Amino acid sequence: MELRADVAARLKDFLGPRLSVAAADRAHHAASESFHRGPPPDAVAWPEDADEVARVVTICAAAGIPVIPWGTGTSLEGHALALRGGVTLDLSRMARVVEVRAGDMQASVQPGLTREALNTELRATGLFFPVDPGANASLGGMAATRASGTTAVRYGTMRSNVLGLQVVLADGRIIRTGTRAAKSSAGYDLTALFLGSEGTLGIITELTLRLHGQPEEVSAAVCAFADLHRAVECVAAVVQSGIPMARIEFVDAATARAFNLHSLSALPETPHLMVEFHGSAGRVREDAASFGELAAEFGATGFDWAVSAEDRARLWRMRHGAYNACRALRPGATGVVTDVCVPMSHLAAAVAAADADIRAAGLIGPMVGHVGDGNFHAQILVDPDDADEVAAARRIAVRMAERALAVGGTITGEHGIGIGKRGLMAAEHGEAWQVMGAIKAALDPGDILNPGKLVPDRN
Amino acid sequence: MELRADVAARLKDFLGPRLSVAAADRAHHAASESFHRGPPPDAVAWPEDADEVARVVTICAAAGIPVIPWGTGTSLEGHALALRGGVTLDLSRMARVVEVRAGDMQASVQPGLTREALNTELRATGLFFPVDPGANASLGGMAATRASGTTAVRYGTMRSNVLGLQVVLADGRIIRTGTRAAKSSAGYDLTALFLGSEGTLGIITELTLRLHGQPEEVSAAVCAFADLHRAVECVAAVVQSGIPMARIEFVDAATARAFNLHSLSALPETPHLMVEFHGSAGRVREDAASFGELAAEFGATGFDWAVSAEDRARLWRMRHGAYNACRALRPGATGVVTDVCVPMSHLAAAVAAADADIRAAGLIGPMVGHVGDGNFHAQILVDPDDADEVAAARRIAVRMAERALAVGGTITGEHGIGIGKRGLMAAEHGEAWQVMGAIKAALDPGDILNPGKLVPDRN
C-alpha cells in the first residue's frame, strides 16, 4: 500500500523533508528490538511541535490513514509497528526539556526526550527523574507503555511520576490532562488513562514529570544465595520489613554466568540480589545494615559493596546489560522476553515454575527481576529461524502468563501489550477488555491511532 | 416524582424490606455534611452483594431511572445527592473485609467498609491502610472521590493505594479492573479511571487495597511559627530535603485558637505545623532531628513532642476535629470548605491571598492544609440563612480556585467535584472536559449513573 498522493502532498506541504517515503526510513520503522516484525509504514514524519502532530493526525484522520507514534524503538512487544501501514510519527525531533521548575520538583518535557538526556540536563539542579527501564527509552514511549524498571520499588512507575500530559486526539484536538499540583480530585484521571494506552487513544506531545531530590548518599551491593527460593524469600521479608530499598533486583544463576562472561565479573554462578539504598548518610547506613542482617538470615554470602559512583555505575551497567550479556550465551540467538508480575507470596513459585518449564524444553532462559514489585523476566534464547524453537519459547511465555493470572497477577508488569500480548488480554481482563474497546471507539471512532493494538477488534 | 410502581415492585421483589420509600429514609439521603442540599431520592436500596447491585442497576437502566451510590454521606461537595431523583444505593450493608492477604500486604474489602473499621480489623496483622481523609468515610466513597488527607505526603492518595476494583457498569455487567500484582502495563488503567469518577461510570462493589507495615516507631510533634510565610516556606524546604515525612500539616492562627477553645490545648495563636514520622526507632530519631534543625532555621518554636500512642491520638484527634472546632468559632454557622492544591512554589502566596480575601469580606475562615502536597482548605464560616454571606463565601472559594488554576494547580485536591465544583470544570480542563463527557457517554449511554454530576451536560 502506498500513501495516497494527495495526502502525501498535503503532509509534504508543511513537513517538507521531514516527511519521507524512502525505503530505508520506512524499513527502520518496521524493525524492533525483539523478534516482532511488521510491515513498513507508508511514510515517516518527523514533526517538531504539537501543532504539526495535530495537522498530521487531522489530515490522516480525514483520509482514514493510520498514525503510529514512535519514540526510540526500544519497545519489546512491537508496539510501534505499522500493522496496517500509515504514517509513523517519529518524535525524535521533539526532544526538548521545555522547562525545569526546581522549586516544584517538576519538569515539562517533549515526548522524544530520552530519560538519560533528561537526567544529564538535570544534573546541576540536585534533582533527577528516577524511572529506569534499562533501555535509554524516550519519555513519551515510557509514558505510553506505563514503564517502570529497577527503581519502581522506591519511586513508583510512570503512573506515579507523570503529573500531566499534552495529547493530540484522533480528531486533531490538543488537550491537557492533569495539573502541576501534586494531586487532584477534579474528575476522570485522563492522565492515567493515556499512560499505558500505547498510542491508541492519542499522541503524547508533552509530559509534566515529577522529579526527586538526588540522594545525598547512595550505596549499592550484590550478594549471593544458595538457591532461588532463599533469594526470593529474602526479598519478601525485606519488603515486609519496610526497609526503603531504592532497588532490589534478582538475577538467576544463568544470568550470573552471563555477567561473568560478558562483564568479566567473578560472581559465583548462583542466584543473586543486587540492591541499592538512597538517602542521607545516616539513613543509608542504617538501611544497608538492616538489609544485611535480614539477608544473612536467608544465607546471603559474598556481599560486595559499591559505594563510589564508579563502582555503582559498573554494577548497574552490568545489570542493564543483562539483555545483551544473556543473548551472548547463545550466539545468533534472539530472546523471547517474558514480563509477568505476581503478588509477592507467589513470586518464588512463579520463578521456579518458569525455570522448570524452560529446562524441560531444553532451552536456555536466564531470568532477572524487579522482585520488590513481584515482576520478573525470562529471556528465552531461540534461533529466530527455527520455527519450532520460537513456538516452544512462546508457549512457555504463555504458560508463565497464565500462571501469573491464576494467582491474581498480570501478563505484563512493565513491557506492555503491543502485538506480543494482545492474545492474552481477554484472559486477564475478561469483560473489562470490552470496556477498553468502548473507550477506544469513543475517542478514536475512525480507528486511526495505532490500529490493531491493545483493544479488541471492532465488530 | 415517585418511583414507578412496576419498577418499585421489581426491586422489592428481591430486596424486600431493604428497599424503602419512607420519607425519613429518603430525607436522610438528601442531606450532606456541607451546605449542599438536594431533593430526596425516590427510594433507597440497601444491597448486600454485587449481584444485587447489578440487578438494581439493570432494572433502573431499563426504566431510565437514576442510580446514585451512597457511602457514609461525609462528602463535602454534594456528590451523593439525587439531583434527578431515582434510587440511592446505600452501601452500608456491604461493609465486610472480604480477605486479608498479609503476605502480599493487601486486603479485599466491600465498598461500605469504613477506613477505621478496616484498620481495627487489621490491628493484629502488623499492617494498616494509611489513607486518612479525617472523616471516617467508606472506602468505596474514598475511592470514588480519589480521597487523600494527612498521610498522602508519605503513602500517596487512593490513586496509589487501590490496586483493583470490582465495578457494576450501567448495563449491569460486573467487571474487575486491575490485578493483585504491584504494577501492570496491561492496557488502559481502568482502575484509575473509576477512582475519582464519583459514581458516574459504575458502582464500585469491591476494592483491592494496598496495605503498609505498621511502623515500628511513630513520633509526632507540633511547633509554632511567627507567620504563615515562614511556616509554608519551612514545608517547601522539608519536602525538598527528602525527609520522609509521614504527615506535615499546616494550621493557621484562627485554627490554633479554635483548638484552644475546643480541645483545651494551649497553643500560641499563630500558624503551626503538625508533623509525624514513621519508621524504625533509629530512622524516626534521625528524621525528627533533621526536621527539627530545618524548622528551627525558619524560626519554629514551642516544639511539643508526642511519642506515646495516647499523646499522638490526642494530637491527631485535635487536627481531625478542626472542622467542628472551627465551626464552633461562630455558633450556628456552616462552613463553606475550599480545597485547592497548588505547586509548592506557589503555596505561600496562595494561602496569603485566600487569607486576605476572607478578611476583606469581613468573614472568619480558618485554614488548614496537607501542605506537603500543596493542598489547603479554608473553612469560611457563614450563616446558612444569610444568602449574601453564602454568596460572598462562594465568591471567595471561586477566586481561590481561579488563582490555583492560574499557577497550574487544581480546583480540588481531594474533595472532588460533586455539585459544588462542577461550574469550574471547564476552567480547569478546557477541551479535556469534553473528553470526560465522551467517556461517560460511551460507558453510560442512558445517563443513569449519578446523573447531573462531574461531566458536561449532554447536548
UniProtKB/TrEMBL annotation, chains A, B:
Domain of life: Bacteria
Cofactor: FAD
Signal peptide range: none
SUPFAM superfamilies, sorted: FAD-binding/transporter-associated domain-like, FAD-linked oxidases, C-terminal domain
Chain segments annotated as coiled-coil in the UniProt record: none
InterPro entries membership: FAD-bd_oxidored_4_C, FAD-bd_PCMH, FAD-bd_PCMH-like_sf, FAD-bd_PCMH_sub2, FAD-linked_Oxase-like_C, Oxid_FAD_bind_N, Vanillyl_alc_oxidase_C-sub2
Homology family: Belongs to the FAD-binding oxidoreductase/transferase type 4 family.
Protein name: D-lactate dehydrogenase (cytochrome)
Species per Swiss-Prot/TrEMBL record: Paracoccus spongiarum
